[in-house]
Fold these 4 entries.
Entry 1:
Amino acid sequence: MAENKGLGLPQTKGEFKLRGLATGLMRDNAFKVIETKSKKGMHILNFGVDTAPESTVYVTIQGVERDEVYFGKRSEEKGQKGETIKVPWKKRHDPQSEGFNLYGLRIGLEKDLEGKNITKTLVEYDAAEAVYDKLTDGQGVFIRGELEFSSNKVNDEVKRNKKFNVKQLYLADSVDFESEDFKELNDFRQRIIYMGIAKVDDKNDPRFEVSAKIVTYKTVEDTEFIVRDTGLANILRKELKPYTAIDVWGNIYNKIDTDEVKEAAKSVWGQQDTFKQVKNNYIRELVLTGADPESIDKETYSEAIIEEALKVFKEFGADNNGNSTSWGQKPDNNDNQESEDDGLPW
């Protein structure tokens, strides 16, 4: 069970893993250096990972200057809690007592003579700059991270956002999309509060939409997932009721809507007007391929509990094909080829 924080409810956390080619690092706004309202420096890095032809997942490393950082040491006794110490921000690079390691992102941007990643831990603020300085477009990467769901109002309309925050990044062998052995890796796993499922009548893309809620540190966010497996859709509809928590998994897709691009091209005589070019419209989907019936929880997130949590946020929040009956595919946990740090916590 996730920690009770913020709203007093266990957060429904999610994680992802990607393998592909880095892209977008040459953009002018890929790396940003800004100042927060509290006059703290902030580094933000946004770049893409091509996981397949015409499929790019955009990830983020974002960190702000702090007053202090944390170092941790594992307990020598099994089952006992380790020790944690605070270190002033300006001394975060100084050597610490033996056994104490910095809490942060695990980054591997170089390899030794044997081809193994040389890894180090950096706080998000430093990691964003280090990755921007050393990673180049076209390099193979393996990334693990956490999903972040949020929302904000734009012209009185609620805009739903998904972020893929990097927690581990390693150089990987270059990916050959044309190889017969190529297998796309764009997986996610997420605990959700199921709210319902509806069929989308689209002749070109028949699918189902799962409505869900995500409990974050400070609020409850609404989101949607896609299902294209009729058997999985049927069992979700039959076995789950609203406000039931369950672990699900699937694949991340972020593709250009080629139909819209073609339609825009048809609407002009000759070449496209560069002053009026329509920005690419991306189709972003989290496609469910499986769920774990043993993870079902019908009690923790009842309607009354969720409504009470939202009331607390409003009052005290800081910021406004088949007929199969299986639960789908099992997640692929074979990550040994990516790095030597797969056993570390995310």
Entry 2:
Amino acid sequence: MTSDLIALSAIGAAILLGAMSPGVSFLLVARTAMSGSKRAALSVAAGMGFGAFVFAVIALAGLHTLLTLVPSLYIGLKVAGGCYLLWLALKMFRRPSNRFSDSAGTEEISASKAFMTGVFTQISNPHTALVFASIFSAALSENIQPVMYIILPTMAFVIDVLWYAVVACLLSTDGPRQAYIKYRKFLDKLSGSVMALLGIRLLLK
């Protein structure tokens, strides 16, 4: 029991640190919070959490072994993920600069669309699945308790949702939103550039 608690603590800390590290997921939640509604940003956060849940499930199911045995599958997933990030970057570059009114400053986006954007963004990098598998392999014993197959994916979901919900709530306040309205053209191009670079990096790595 004690060893399981230690393993869960170590895995939880690793997942939290991974979520907190700057990257595509943080960028998307932050930008949605500043340019859209808090509801949309929280929906993206929920999508990120669901993506983490999926990665935890497939990592426990042995995706690491499958991708190692079938390199072409890993390459295919990377290409698909890189192309998706480039598509997101293109959307940011092509967004009209006059789309928002300075009085409202919000971009209308449905909760379901925001959720699915979060899911697809989270799972766009198959390398994350390997990171999950590595964390689980390092912290868990060979004989995994059946209950862990429920606890670990749920814990990954909760940690990601809570972290990105905090980001969404903080950045959807008036201060960050007014800053976005003032510099939206520059911030859209900066966000698109970072997203494009991450997509290209995923394709070439």
Entry 3:
Amino acid sequence: MGRPFTVDDLEFMPDDGNVYELIDGVLFVSPQPGRRHQRALWRLGELLDDACPEDLVVLWPPYVVRMSCDTELRPDLQVAWEVDVEDETVLDAPELVVEIVDPSTTINDLNNKKVAYARMGVPHYWVLDPTRPSLLAYRLDGGSYQRMARVCAEEPFETDDPFPVRVVLAELLGRRSGGQEPQS
């Protein structure tokens, strides 16, 4: 058995379009996101950017969260304090992380990453499924996440924490959100 991976090893990963992340020295490889995923990412990113206070910033890849030499994650979206961002790295726990799931990432996003973000101290974790469509919103409580909301399609999700925002998936994702649009 070889040694655990470190963030320095990520520099030597192939430029093949895959997403490379580390959790406790274990390498996770995901395929490049498809069109539906990208559409949800940009629309939710714009919505969050319009709502967040000026001392917070909405970031998407290539920005990463690096909490140690053996853990680096690339959230689909994150809202971090401006002072914690250096180059393309967030050096302290962001206020909010959003993962947009697809069939190849669901298990990792709902298990491994969720635990890693809780250990990092990320106060808010959302999981958006643009295929169904649904949104799970979690809040960190005592070292683990407690679900604060699960909304589908036209149900509004309104929160003041970490800042006031209202998300209605049907409006956000548009008419094709529940259809069989190909995952290119």
Entry 4:
Amino acid sequence: MRWIVDGMNVIGSRPDGWWRDRHRAMATLVANLDRWAIAEGEQVTVVFERPPAPAIEATAVTVASAPAAAPNSADDEIVRLVRADAHPGQIRVATSDRALSERVSDAGATVFPAERFRALIDPA
């Protein structure tokens, strides 16, 4: 199973003050994903609307972003990744965005709710 994570949607699934420091929230998500991916042997790509600045490094996780930041650009990039994959049925997309959920389901991927995914990788 391959995972594609709607980064800001998963971050926003828990009201923990993430909005005060978006970069720190992004770095924390990537670190949690990295630990989880290594421990579980999962292949994970996290997608943000724009590249994190400064860049966020990871060992096992691919940190991706939309080609140009705009409304729904991360969603468009996630759909592009699903459609470009030879086996979209082997992809789970972590998001609670209804429109994105419909788009990736139509492309053959399955959807895993953001809040449940966040609890999986970062138990409260």
